[in-house]
User: Fold this.
Amino acid sequence: MKKICVLLIICFFVVVALGCKSDTGNYFADTLKGKATDAAWDSLTTKSTETTSEKKSKATSDYVPSDADAHYIQPSDYFISDREFPNQGWIYVYLAKVVTAPTAQTKNEGQFMKVHDGKEIWTKYHWKSRIATKADIRIGAIVISFDDNIIDNVYMAPKNKDQARNGQWFMGKIIDTTDLYKGYVTVAGGYKVDVNNIRIPIK
Assistant:
């Protein structure tokens, strides 16, 4: 009888132990499964968010207004400076939007916002512009050119909208056209400028 009781007690503990092991195993399995599912979801969500963000960034970067020209310049854009062009050498000019239009009451000064940094300044040195034609390319012509795309020592037109609108431009005078057959002219300072990188300032 005692042996039977002992056997029954042993069997009871074995069953309990096995049950605990099974529950523990199921618990750990469920926990691991849950963590794996959460990790996979987080990974997919992150990738989806990054992809959406990248697409938005690319879409914003690639968008070009329908009224922009080949240099990504719009009719409402101005080039401005804080000084007058000295009629020799060259000066930097900045792409800007008008905030307060120049009038006789403002002594022909306008308030402009620089496109690349949003800084607002008052100045009377402002120009609209257009892309140069063949007839515009002559000795002594004052031109505006892009400064931040140099290939083989020649200043080229901007490659894209972001470069055009956030990069640097300069104003200079054409001093040599003898290399036109090579596709460029020379402006004051000895800088070679591609013929497709020339704008004519309009006062």
Residues 1-8, 10-29, 31-60 have pLDDT under 50 and may be disordered. The chain has two domains: 1-63, 77-202. The helical segments are 2-62, 161-166. The first strand starts at residue 77 and ends at 81.
